[in-house]
Specification:
42% of the residues lie in helices and 11% in strands. It is an alpha+beta fold. Helix 11 packs across helix 19 (437-453) and helix 16 crosses helix 17 (383-392). The protein starts with a helix and ends with a helix.
Length: 481
């Protein structure tokens, strides 16, 4: 239990020794370079030559799943695997925003702890160092298309990326195309929206002409941008993902590792955050005073073609195209563009990266470790596993086994690659450097809420962003000692 208590105490803390190893001046930008090559450099693998270290029924697998939206698919995979091999696979999915807490609780169970868990970055690898099995000889590492999509810590491969993702501004191609047919439309095609100024002009014009478009084309539009909820189920899109833009450019200027960051920031590019946030709020029908109410559902608004734009990621492809949800938007009408903030719009691509790395519990029994490795191999090599990951979860997997019909079908991932092929620079997931992430984000959301509802001003957001970063970094450093 001593090791667990140490890990729990460090969880969510930014361990400074890890940052020193990969932070400012290291120029270790492998994550961005790796993700830029995933689809392009996939190699053909004879997936019939699967690892036949047959699961003999010994051992069991316990996965603590990081992504709530994939729970049903993982439950089905667990059942299929048990039917085929006799090996028991249990999947527990943590609630949204509760993964760290759930992981601490579950890992305290000793022999009954998860055998597969998620780590999001090098800091997490240090936090859970006593629990990460070295994956350097594993099939999931050997099949990794680009080995930099792994977390290396303390001389071992502590985690292997199970997907790579992209986020940006999702848009409805059909509605944009219809808008472009209107007299005096700001642009003639969606391709012309290549900067913050263009995006702002288009969104504001659409917002003014909602009634005209509804009458002419039969839509039921209410807004240009879907609501930007500041409740706990939605605010991460902004305190986390939107914050990536100013953090990325500041770390880049400072010569930092783009996903390790630094202990102090200046907020030099915070105007890019403000530009986008003001646009989101001003071109939405949502009441700015009630964004924390939890009554808005941006996914539904976009899916039912009430909104044209929606900041989110490629994980939204599966729910938006799931017929059971009854959405009006069709797969062929989906597209994603960068979150333009006015910094380097001409060269900017989508935000590409991952915070999803499989780690195997080294404290588990040998039988359970082997059963776990066998299960993960099956997931990335079997037809059932690859179909589930690509077609049912809608993820882009970074393994050389995902070719042909199992290559990414997610149009958002395809858009990410198109920007890369056009020479645009993908924005690294710099929000992964956030110290004491929940506390920092909560303070930013509080200030952002006050600014948005009129009870506060922008200077408070700047303070929460900049001073709050230094404060939480210091607290994290102290907790890591």
């Amino acid at each position: 239990m001593r090791k667990f208590k140490k890990a729990a105490a460090l969880s969510m803390a930014l361990a400074m020794s890890a940052t020193m190893a990969v932070g400012c001046g290291s120029k270790n930008e492998g994550t961005t370079a790796a993700t830029a090559k995933q689809d392009q450099n996939q190699t053909t693998t004879d997936t019939d030559k699967k690892d036949d270290k047959a699961s003999s029924g010994k051992g069991s697998v316990y996965m603590l799943n990081f992504k709530p939206e994939t729970d049903e698919v993982w439950q089905d995979l667990a059942k299929t695997y048990k039917d085929q091999t006799g090996v028991e696979v249990t999947v527990l999915t943590a609630a949204e925003g509760q993964y760290s807490t759930t992981l601490q609780s579950e890992m305290a169970k000793g022999a009954d702890a998860p055998t597969i868990f998620n780590i999001g970055n090098t800091t997490a690898a240090q936090t859970w160092n006593d629990y990460t099995y070295d994956l350097k000889d594993s099939d999931i590492y050997n099949h990794l298309s680009d080995k930099s999509l792994s977390i290396n810590f303390d001389g071992k491969v502590a985690g292997v990326a199970n997907c790579y993702e992209a986020f940006g501004i999702i848009y409805n191609k059909k509605i944009i195309a219809d808008y472009c047919k209107l007299d005096n439309a700001v642009v003639k095609s969606a391709d012309e929206i290549d900067s913050f100024d263009k995006l702002k002009a288009v969104a504001e014009d659409i917002n003014k002409r909602v009634d005209e478009m509804n009458e002419k084309y039969g839509y039921e539009l209410t807004e240009a941008f879907a609501s930007s909820g500041l409740d706990s189920g939605s605010s991460w899109r902004f305190s986390g993902h939107l914050s990536c833009i100013p953090l990325y450019y500041e770390f880049k200027d400072a010569g930092c590792d783009l996903i390790a960051g630094q202990g102090e920031i200046t907020g030099k590019y915070l105007d890019s955050f403000k530009n986008m946030w003001d646009l989101y709020v001003s071109t939405s029908s949502a009441d700015p005073k009630t964004l924390t109410s939890g009554t808005y559902n941006a996914e539904t608004e976009f899916g039912m073609e009430q909104a044209v734009f929606y900041q989110n990621g490629n994980w939204e492809y599966a729910p938006l195209t799931n017929e059971e949800n009854g959405y009006l938007v069709q797969a062929e009408d989906l597209g994603m563009m960068p979150i333009y903030g006015g910094v380097d719009d001409a060269n900017q691509g989508l935000c590409v990266g991952t915070e999803n790395y499989w780690a195997v519990n080294s404290q588990a029994s040998e039988e359970n470790i082997q059963a776990t490795l066998d299960f993960l191999t099956w997931v990335i090599t079997s037809d059932e596993g690859r179909d589930a990951v690509t077609n049912k979860m809608g993820l882009s997997a970074p393994f050389d086994t995902f070719t042909g019909e199992y290559a990414p079908s997610n149009v958002f991932s395809q858009d990410a690659q198109k920007y890369m092929d056009a020479g645009k620079t993908s924005v690294a997931w710099s929000f992964n450097a956030t110290p004491n992430v929940d506390d920092w984000r909560a303070d930013v959301v509080t200030a952002l809420t006050a600014y948005t509802d009129g009870s506060g001003d922008w200077s408070a957001v700047q303070t929460a962003f900049v001073d709050g970063w230094a404060k939480q970094w210091k607290l994290a450093e102290e907790a890591a000692k």
